[in-house]
Amino acid sequence: MRRHGAALGAALLIIASAVCRAGPADAAPQIFNILDFQFEDGSVLPDLHIAYETRGTLAPGRDNAILLMPGAIGDPMPSTR
Known about the structure:
This protein has 81 residues and is α+β, with helices and mostly antiparallel strands. It has one helix and two strands; from the N terminus they run αββ.
């Protein structure tokens, strides 16, 4: 399952790079759809929907974008020792 998370995270980063563009300061949320997203282990998610929104202005060098993934960073399970 961790491999799926890593693969999905990498896909989200690629998608964010592709869809980030200059826009209004408070753009409405948008949906990016991916059909038949394939994970490294070969399993396929038939219909992946990724919600995103842009804020601010993208620099001409496209080097000021930040990808935030709520829920992707969490504390590991506490040890039961």
